[in-house]
UniProtKB/TrEMBL annotation:
Residues annotated as domain Photolyase/cryptochrome alpha/beta: 2-140
Statement: the UniProt record of this protein carries the keyword Manganese: no
Lineage start: Eukaryota, Fungi, Dikarya, Basidiomycota, Agaricomycotina
Name used for this protein in its record: DNA photolyase
Ranges for region Disordered: 252-282
Compositionally biased intervals (Basic and acidic residues): 267-282
Matches recorded under SUPFAM superfamilies: Cryptochrome/photolyase FAD-binding domain, Cryptochrome/photolyase, N-terminal domain
Superkingdom of the organism of origin: Eukaryota
Protein family: Belongs to the DNA photolyase class-1 family.
Necessary cofactors: FAD
Matches recorded under InterPro entries: Crypto/Photolyase_FAD-like_sf (IPR036134), Crypto/Photolyase_N_sf (IPR036155), Cryptochr/Photolyase_FAD-bd (IPR005101), Cryptochrome/DNA_photolyase_1 (IPR002081), DNA_photolyase_N (IPR006050), Rossmann-like_a/b/a_fold (IPR014729)
Pfam families per record: DNA_photolyase, FAD_binding_7
Keyword Transferase: no
């Protein structure tokens, strides 16, 4: 007999993992071995527009987890299965083969995944009682707990935050940021077991067909920008909390190299987190944590991040104030909770529907018209700040939040292209692609979502550019044609100069485009 922990794409860690901790506890109580399972599901990756970068990151992390678990004599069995419709049957067949009594997993809030897990529970029950336990782990406060007076989910962030904060007060083991215990080791004799012993020979594949990064140079670059493993995630957190930013680190560089980590004597003032309140929107400053790939894949838990900030705050409490860097950062972690709650409580957002149904009829331009969508993807719109963002995504598989907003608003309002095409492209190119946050961000920018940007408040990309990249260092880093320009010429190159440098002229006139967008949003369905 055995207890099984089923690891999924969003909980790629051993430390502070609730389902894994529970599985271990049960295995210890019953005196049976703990086994762990990961099922690669290529059809799900297609359905969710997963990027090859994210799949490669997943495999690299699994390799690291496999080796750490093996040190505890716990096997990680990585396998692949299609079609995705029979995944529950397949998992059940493995459980039976392993004579498992209980299965533990962390809940995934996406609709397809919830349906899959419900089906597995039903099958397991019918089949003679393998108990399946799914637990909340992804958010600081689980969906369903932060509700309005009439017990509904919040659809506006600020009241959500006000209601979220009181849930943080419990202390000790009841604290929402309490760390789940590490799993205990199996006895070494499990390696001699006729069924469980051979599981240790299983290895993590180097690639998943259909999701390979064929360009070796790209693969190396992405791997350098995003080192795998829990230790790397912890070092990224340390980098954010304890070291200073350097604008020379904006490009594709190893984030953990010594140059990227200038120690600071006064973390609350000079460190990245110290400057976060005032500088987090600066594209030319590298003051954000760059933890999103690690949080999206669960390589570090949101609890661990918030816990680490309490060590820095004066009273050792969770700081969520607007007035400090730490407080503002924890408020961003609350945005992550917010979008996950929206996903869990309003599943239609993940089904390609706008949250604001009245916006379903907004008239979009054809995606192929004048090659605008492709030009946006290629970073060739002729608007430097948009192009720099899109080229950052191509180069690093990641973008700063502010430039995601600028690029998304430009696609939906200036080019008037359907937000779902942008949402899909971000999933395909980013290493931190996450349904809840990506959908939330896109529907915010397209003014179709929960708590959206009002449709008439359209970013002027040139004004934004001056504001968020005042030194121009960001544009110069990512748009090589403009590397020698400064000031206004850099933010909005005059046509003659652009032609000379081989840089495109703007695809549309912003003022004209803005009028078109307001007209179409005001009267959905009309031209
Ligand atoms: P920090 O500023 O250091 O913030 C810390 C953490 O808080 C982030 O890692 C993230 O987990 C969370 N967070 C911060 N801002 C947000 C936010 N607005 N919404 C939700 N969570 C947030 N984030 C993703 O993780 N995956 C996505 O696929 C994604 N797509 C986006 C698409 C659009 C159009 C927009 C506007 C935003 C998107 N975001 C997404 C949110 C945000 O841009 C990134 O989380 C952030 O840029 C990551 O950088 P960081 O880790 O340095 O963030």
């Amino acid at each position: 007999e055995a207890v099984v922990y089923w690891m999924r794409m969003e909980d790629l860690r051993i430390t502070d993992n609730r389902a894994l901790a529970l599985a271990s506890k049960h295995a210890q109580q019953d005196g049976v071995p703990l086994l762990t399972l990961f099922v690669l599901s290529p059809q799900d990756y297609v359905a969710h527009d997963r990027s090859a970068r994210r799949i490669d990151f997943t495999l690299r992390n699994l390799q690291s987890i496999r080796s750490s678990l093996a040190d505890k004599h716990i096997p990680l069995y990585t396998t692949s299965h299609t079609p995705r419709t029979t995944l529950p049957d397949y998992v059940l067949s493995l459980l039976k083969q392993w004579k498992a009594t209980t299965l533990f997993a962390n809940i995934e809030y996406e609709v397809d995944e919830l349906r899959r897990d419900i089906k597995l529970c039903e099958l397991a029950k019918k089949d003679g009682g393998i108990a399946c336990t799914f637990v909340h782990d992804r958010c600081i406060i689980p969906p369903g707990q932060v509700l309005t007076k009439d017990e509904r989910g919040y659809t506006v962030y600020s009241p959500f935050l006000r209601s979220w904060i009181p849930h943080l007060t419990p202390k000790g083991k009841d604290s929402p940021i309490a760390c789940a215990p590490d799993p205990a080791s199996n006895t070494p004799s499990v390696r001699d077991h006729p069924v469980y012993g051979p599981l240790f020979d299983n290895t993590v594949p180097d690639e998943v067909e259909g999701f390979t990064m064929d360009d070796a140079e790209e693969r190396e670059r992405i791997r350098m920008c995003w080192p795998a493993g829990e230790e790397a995630a912890r070092l990224m957190l340390d980098r954010f909390l304890h070291t200073m930013s350097r604008s020379s680190q904006l490009g594709a560089v190893d984030p953990l190299s010594e140059g990227a980590k200038v120690p600071t004597k006064n973390p609350n003032k000079d460190s990245r987190v110290g400057k976060y309140k005032d500088e987090r929107d600066r594209l030319d400053a590298d003051t954000t944590s760059r933890l999103s790939p690690y949080l999206a894949a669960g390589i570090i838990s949101a609890r661990t991040c918030v816990r680490a900030t309490t060590e820095l705050s004066a009273n050792k409490k969770i700081d969520v104030s607007r007035d400090t860097g730490i407080g503002r950062w924890n408020q961003e972690i609350a945005w992550r909770d917010f979008y996950n709650h929206v996903l869990a409580l309003f599943p239609r957002v993940s089904m390609g529907r706008p949250f604001q149904e009245k916006m379903a009829n907004v008239k979009w331009e054809s995606e192929t018209r004048d090659g605008h969508l492709q030009a946006w993807k290629d970073g060739r719109t002729g608007v430097p700040i948009v192009d720099a963002g899109m080229l950052q995504a191509k180069t690093m598989g990641w973008m700063h939040n502010r430039v995601r907003m600028i690029a998304a608003m430009y696609l939906t309002k200036d080019l008037m292209i359907d937000w779902r095409l942008g949402e899909k492209y971000f999933m395909e190119i980013l290493i931190d692609g996450d349904l809840a946050s990506n959908n939330g961000g896109w529907q915010w920018s397209a003014s179709t979502g929960v708590d959206p940007a009002p449709y008439f408040r359209i970013f002027n990309p040139y004004t934004q550019s001056h504001k968020v990249d005042p030194t121009g260092e960001y544009i110069r880093t990512f748009v090589p044609e403009l590397a020698k320009l400064r000031g206004e010429e850099l933010h909005k190159p005059p046509p003659g100069l652009a032609d000379k440098l081989g840089y495109p002229r703007p695809l549309v006139d912003h003022d004209e485009a803005r009028k078109r967008a307001i007209r179409r949003y005001k009267n959905p369905g009309e031209e």
